[in-house]
Amino acid sequence: MRLYGKKYWANIDEMPIYYWFKWHEEKDNKYLSKTGKIGSLVNYFGDKLMTQFIERFGFSESFIKTLEKEKELVLLQARRAITDDRSLNAFIKICELEIEALKKETTERADFYEIKGVLEHEMGFQIDIKKVSVAEYYTYFKALKKIRPKQNG
């Protein structure tokens, strides 16, 4: 496993933010590899990075809201299946529309370079996206949210 660690980004303290965003934006596992070539352990390293990120920074509020709404949808669908109450169809449709809106809101947020620009402006220094790690970038972001909570809420 140690040998593979040299080929893949195995830690959010080392992985540059550029590759993190490319991985999420393009949904392409080649960004988990330091060489751009992927092998059979790529999913292991992707899961490892996501686990580290969640343990350190938690889930975003929008993710939690979407998850709660999806839970509500499943409960409504289960109740309809059990009771055969067709009046629940309207509530199910409303719930589906709300989930769609939440997901759209999340994807329409400021893009990576806009956020980077705000961070640079507010923090007073430039961020080299191929050198600054995922952990460092999100620590800056978290610090800025604490400094300016009303504007970043």
What does this structure look like?
It is built from eight helices and no strands. The protein has 153 residues and is mainly α. The chain has two domains: 1-58 and 110-153, no CATH class; 61-107. The chain has helices at 2-5, 17-26, 42-57, 61-83, 88-107, 112-123, 134-147, 149-152.
Radius of gyration: 20 Å
- Structural class based on helices, strands and sheet pairing: mainly alpha
Estimate the mean pLDDT confidence.
85
Distance between the termini: 41 Å
Give the beta-strand count: 0
Major sheet size, sense and barrel closure: none
Residues in helix, %: 55-70%
Report the portion of residues in β strands: under 5%
Q: List SSEs in N-to-C order.
A: HHHHHHHH
Residue windows where pLDDT falls under 50 for at least 5 positions: none
Number of helical segments?
A: 8
What characteristic shape results from the CA principal axes? globular
